[in-house]
Amino acid sequence: VRSDLNHWIQEIRKGEARPVARALTEIENRGPRSRTLLRSLFPYSGKALRLGVTGAPGVGKSTLISQITANLRRQDCKVAIVGVDPTSPYSGGSILGDRVRMQSHHGDPGVFVRSMATRGVLGGLAPTTADVVTVLEAAGYDAVLIETVGVGQAEIEIMKWVSQIVLVLTPGMGDDVQMMKAGVMEIADVFLINKSDQDGASQLESQLRSLLALLPEGAPWPSIVRTVATTGEGVDQLMESLSTRPGLLNRLVGGWKERLASMVQQEVVEHIQRCIDDARFEKMAHEIVEGRQNPYELVEAVVAEVKNAKS
Ligand SMILES: Nc1nc2c(ncn2[C@@H]2O[C@H](COP(=O)(O)OP(=O)(O)OP(=O)(O)O)[C@@H](O)[C@H]2O)c(=O)[nH]1
Ligand SMILES: [Mg+2]
């Protein structure tokens, strides 16, 4: 079993699509081998450009990601694309549409496409994103592009694991921009006005500029870029502005260090829960209630047991 696992890890390290896909499934399901995989792969992670692309349905995120991918491929970067579907635990219609849009990269071994559901283990969401990125980085992808729809709490959680965020808007969204919550505005590194071939791009840009003027003094200034994702116009400028900016997110939404600490904390709790199942905790509570056990002694016994357990 051990050598099977080693073989699997070697295949992932070579960037072979099937073993990588299997590893992601194992992690999404929190399967029995997911921890061992992550532990072995972690040392090889941490090197990719992690880009989050978010925005309302239909603004052109997938088309844009396809263009960004083409741009990165010209620079010989290997690219992994992760589409996060917030609505359904199974691949919904939009994922199917993405398959079509990603067709131009079909058969290119340097591009890996994966969709993920966010529904599932409650609270397990953010660490899962971090874990998915760990696998993809260890598999040698130079860039991980994550598409999410909208900017709800779940998306913000996901975006905590990327280094830069592109918020995609389209002409005519001026009212939405006015309503945008401060928290959302502040996490975007780039405000992208896509579909700039349509009327109203300049108007949206001036609305954005007056809104950004409200950012607190000294706050890093996000850039505004116009694109036409269908033709690729403006994508070079986008790449340029991404390469010259340090990500805003790390400075604004809590620290990276705190995020890692809370991830470790959650892992520790899960580890303990795996060692001692709920039924036993139930039984312990019962015995305490009946006065047959001392809770403080029980805690010490549990801690000792966890210490001796192998993960
Ligand atoms: N005119 C114009 N159409 C565009 C542009 N970018 C994308 N589109 C079109 O907009 C539609 C939606 O594009 P997608 O890339 O699927 O948008 P999305 O944001 O990924 O959509 P969801 O994943 O469903 O939220 C498609 O028909 C695209 O061809 C653009 O710059 N100009
Ligand atoms: Mg899409």
Q: How would you describe this protein?
A:
This protein has 311 residues and is of the alpha/beta class. 51% of the residues lie in helices and 14% in strands. A seven-stranded parallel beta sheet has the order 3-2-4-1-5-6-7, with helices on both faces. Strand 2, helix 5 (93-101) and strand 3 (111-117) form a beta-alpha-beta unit. The longest helix is centred in the C-terminal third of the chain and has 20 residues, at 256-275. The two termini are 15 Å apart. Mean pLDDT is 82; it is low at 88-96, 120-124 and 249-253. The site of magnesium ion has 5 residues, from helix 4 and helix 5.
Mean pLDDT rating: 82
Instruction: Please give the number of β-strands.
Output: 7
The percent range for helix content is: 40-55%
Within the largest sheet, what's the order of strands? 3-2-4-1-5-6-7
What Rg do the Cα atoms give? 22 Å
Topology:
Elements: H1 2-13, H2 17-28, H3 34-41, E1 49-55, H4 61-74, E2 79-85, H5 93-101, E3 111-117, H6 125-138, E4 143-149, H7 153-159, E5 164-169, H8 174-179, H9 182-187, E6 190-193, H10 201-212, E7 223-226, H11 235-243, H12 249-252, H13 256-275, H14 278-289, H15 295-308
Parallel strand pairs: 1-4, 1-5, 2-3, 2-4, 5-6, 6-7
Helix pairs in contact: 1-2, 2-6
The structure holds guanosine-5'-triphosphate and magnesium ion (MG).
Residues 61-62, 94, 98, 147 line the site of magnesium ion.
